Amino acid sequence: QVQLVESGGGLVQAGDSLRLSCSASGRTSSMFTMGWFRQAPGKEREFVAAIRRNGFNTDYTDSVKGRFTISRDNAKNTVWLQTNRLKPEDTAVYYCAAGTTDLLSQWEWRYDFWGQGTQITVSS
């Protein structure tokens, strides 16, 4: 099992930045692709970004490309999501997820472990 704990969320104004962290513990050797998803009030959870174990291959949903950056440090068992130029529509609970296969994927079912989420609220 892998336990994931997100942190770094908060209440910010449009245009601000936040850096989300996801710390992993447990059987971290089984973690390969890591992803960030988000769920806005009244909406389905959606893919935000993913990164392969090598730390180089990444994928982003179109709405965050150029504003968000996903990165990881395998030695620290940590994944980050740098969020810049935040918009009110970025308001959501952000979830970290870990997959046991090394495939970039936007599909939730590809991810086996999930954190509890951290809230980002962006005011206009």
Can I get a quick summary?
With 124 residues, the protein is mainly beta. It is built from no helices and 11 strands. Helix content is 0%, strand content 49%.
How would a crystallographer describe the biggest sheet?
A: 7 strands, mixed
Spell the H/E element sequence: EEEEEEEEEEE
CA distance, first residue to last residue: 40 Å
Amount of helix: under 10%
Q: Regions with pLDDT < 50 over 5+ consecutive residues?
A: none
Strand percentage:
over 45%
Q: How would you describe this protein?
A:
This protein has strands at residues 2-7, 10-13, 18-26, 34-39, 46-51, 58-60, 68-73, 78-83, 92-98, 113-114, 118-123. Strands 2, 4, 5, 6, 9, 10 and 11 form a 7-stranded mixed beta sheet that branches. Strands 1-3-8-7 form a 4-stranded antiparallel beta sheet, with no helix packed on it. With 124 residues, it is mainly beta. The mean pLDDT is 96. It is built from no helices and 11 strands.
List the helices and strands and how they pair.
Elements: E1 2-7, E2 10-13, E3 18-26, E4 34-39, E5 46-51, E6 58-60, E7 68-73, E8 78-83, E9 92-98, E10 113-114, E11 118-123
Parallel strand pairs: 2-11
Antiparallel strand pairs: 1-3, 3-8, 4-5, 4-9, 5-6, 7-8, 9-10, 9-11
Q: Could you name the key traits of this structure?
A:
single chain, 124 residues, mainly beta, seven-stranded mixed β-sheet, four-stranded antiparallel β-sheet, 11 strands, 0% helix, 49% strand, globular
